[in-house]
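Hi everyone, sorry if this is the wrong subforum. Our group has a chain we'd like a structural model of before ordering constructs, and none of us has done structure prediction before. Sequence below.
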Amino acid sequence: AAARAGVAGGAVAAPAGGFVPTDPAIGDYSARWNDFSLEIFSAPKPFVGDDKDNNERAIRSWLSLNPKPRVTLLGYETGFDEVAQKFGINIEKRVDKNFLGVPLFNSMLSRANSSKALVTVIINGDILLFDDFVQTLHKVMSNFRDFLIVGARYDIDELPPGVTESDPNYVARVREHVLATGTLHTYGGMDVWAWNTDGPRLFDPIMPHFVFGRGKYDNWLTHETISAGRRQVIDVSETCLTVHVKHDYHLVAGGGKRRRLLGQFWSEGKKSKFELFINIFLSLHVGTYTNQMGNVLFAPWKLSMCLEPTGMCLLRRKRPGICNCEFSSFVGKTQTDPVVKNGSRVIRCGMISVETKDDFSIPVLPPEGSEPPPFGLPLTLESILERLPEDNTIILSALNFGYRTIMMNWVCNMRHLNIRNFVIASLDPDLYKYAYTRGLPSYYETTIFEGLNSSLLADATYGSDSFKQLTKMKSRVVVRLLKLGVNVVWTDCDIVWFKNPLDHMKNHNVDLVIQTNAPDDEPMNGRRRINSGFYLAKSNPPTIQAFEDIIKFASKSRMSEQPCFYDVMCGKNGETAIGDNKCQYNGMVVQLLDRHLYPNGITDKIWDTTPGQIWKKFPNLYILHNNWVKGAGGKQERFEKHGFIMFDKEEELCLYPTEW
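Answer:
Right subforum, don't worry. Here is the predicted structure as tokens:
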């Protein structure tokens, strides 16, 4: 009776004197299969070594499904171009990543949700699928209007020996091998999600910036979709054979440590692994998820194998999540098989997480007088620099919490250009925590406040005395990096970057190249026309000394820091200016950047250009400064008018331009 209760929908007519159980959630939607289309999204590891073999084997399994799906790789890693050409699949580069280059799951979900296919899938890059996946989709689509499918995978040590994909019995042999020797993965982890794209929003909260492949986002997504109640969530672990060949976790274990497998890695030291820590923190602080709710056992519906004509029966769980060993009597082996210890009368069947909000708070500063903490707990300037690429040159900005939206717009600009070698110096702990939970390379800067009133920073609105205080901190951060031997590109966050300017700036072969703030009818190095919002400073003794002199001069001045740059390096009245684009100071050369390539807010009347036409009318621009406009409101209006809003602050996702 239990099996029959879920076989078909409530539209089935009862025979005379008979009884057919119904459920209001079930209907007859079989006609939708006529419009069926499928797109599979995945963010696989770089196609190198064993990962290349595992990824390509998985892709071949996906493309063998009937009907054949569209396959899209998310991100842009080593081997993506070659694989896309080899298999005729697609690449979607517009995916948000953390500063270590790992995709963020909220961005992946957004891309998958915008698919034009009727059913969209996110799957881990090394998971094999077979025809029962399509049969499972058919069954679910025929019974539910709006759904989310979740499933646990089977782990195997290796594929059956001596069997190749060209073998006509390959699928049957693999299936037999998996069911005989495989282990159904713990109910806590999921590797595949599928849902219809023409339905309601999956969940209510804005999904936080989970790091893909680092846990918790799977449980959070499932739990929040169940809680929203707009879709039927179905556990298909028994009917859909998703297969995973065991591998190590070298990409998440950290350098210098031995490679570890499966549960061994995930169960050790969750507070010592940076990205795992972030995901746990996010899962506990956004939405209503707690302690591993949202695993496959919490799905209200379960699709099981049965002897009905379709081979599958829908079962409705009366108490979802109540029994952790539910699968044990239906499959050959599970990671959570019941265990009875010698002399005990207790049957042990799996465990649940015990993380609580109080146990996971964001570390802001390293504890004093102790051993160095694990990487990322907290992030420090030195630890970030060790992991950033690019020729000993770092792009730097420093802000407080009040500027977080404009910061994120600039961060999305960097992501669009695939620029990763930037650092954000957070001038208050609130911005540090905000950046930390969004995967940004940010640290809390506390070493630069000597002689300054740091308590005013929270209210540093443009043009205020507090704002002037804030500008005087910028150079202090720069000097700190210069003394570490790092060349620094300073950028204000109200600057639009059209292409990476680093090589062009380095080719000037001077100590400091810097933007001019001069109107078109004035020389670029005219009096107090240096713009300290964008420059490249080389790490050498003359440059370091010049910046220390600027800091000292600015500390005694009532002006903001910008005019102090000119007064120190060019002389108050331009005494050390050379020609119309250089100055010389104590053995160092300062050169002003070509204003037609690095324009300020008044150059060539660029901001007066017809909306949407700047990058067409001025195709040679490297950057464009949004200054020479009054207040933050004026800056925002310009950005909106010309299509330079690159951050959706409602969904917390980057918007990627398609024109440039």
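For your construct planning: Residues 465-483 form the longest helix (19 residues). The first strand starts at residue 38 and ends at 42.
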